[in-house]
Each structure stands twice: as C-alpha cells, then as structure tokens.
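Can't paste images in this forum, so I'm doing it all in text. The chain is below; anyone willing to post the predicted structure tokens underneath?
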Amino acid sequence: MAITVKASLGTEKYYTEVVAGENTLITDEPVDKGGQNKGFNPFEILATSLASCTAATLRMYIDRKEWNVEKINVEVELENFPLTKRTIFITNISFEGTNLDDEQMKRLHTIANACPVHKILTNDIEILTKFS
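Text version of the structure:
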C-alpha cells in the first residue's frame, strides 16, 4: 500500500501545509528555531504517527475481543540523539474505564508492538530522494 503526502512551504518560515488525500495539516518549527509554532514540528508528527497507530490498533483488537475499555491513552516521547544516530521512542499506554487482568495486559502489550507504524520504525528503512 503506497501512501502519498505533499508538503508545500512558501516564503513564510517554516509554515508548511501537508496534504494527504482530502486531509490537510500544518507543520511549523518552534519560535526558538525560527518558526512561528503554528503547527506540529516534524518530530512531533513522527511521534504522532506511532501514538495514533498504536491507539487504533489496540482499539481494533479490544473491540474484536469485546472487552469493555472506555478510553485508550497513548503517550509517545521521542528522544533524538543525532551525534550517535540513535532515536528512542518511549510509549506509555493506559486504559480508562476498564479492569483488565494481567493476561489481557500482556496480550495488549504484544498487540501495541504490532501496530503497522511500530513495525515500519523497527524494520529496515530506505529513503530515496529524487528531484523533479
């Protein structure tokens, strides 16, 4: 499955409109990096992808099992270490309105780590850059 997004950046530092299909979002850089903080920065978007995919994957599984879980909270902290070329994602998951047992929690841990974005981020990644 191929996904295409288009980012357009004009002369307003670093305000970028990103379009995917019929959806648009704004990215920007923080004020201390020369932006105006009008949207998520690129690292926040990356962490958002993991957080939202994890939540959706858990919801699909929980609904299929017909477990009663009112709310799934997923918090992702991204730490980037450019000098060592290492990035760490810390994912903290909590559930509201439920009483899951240890076996269910163990299974949900496995399911969370099986979300498609998690799999992409832990597999080999190749980026091909072309100019047109």
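The chain has a mean pLDDT of 96. The first helix runs from residue 42 to 65.
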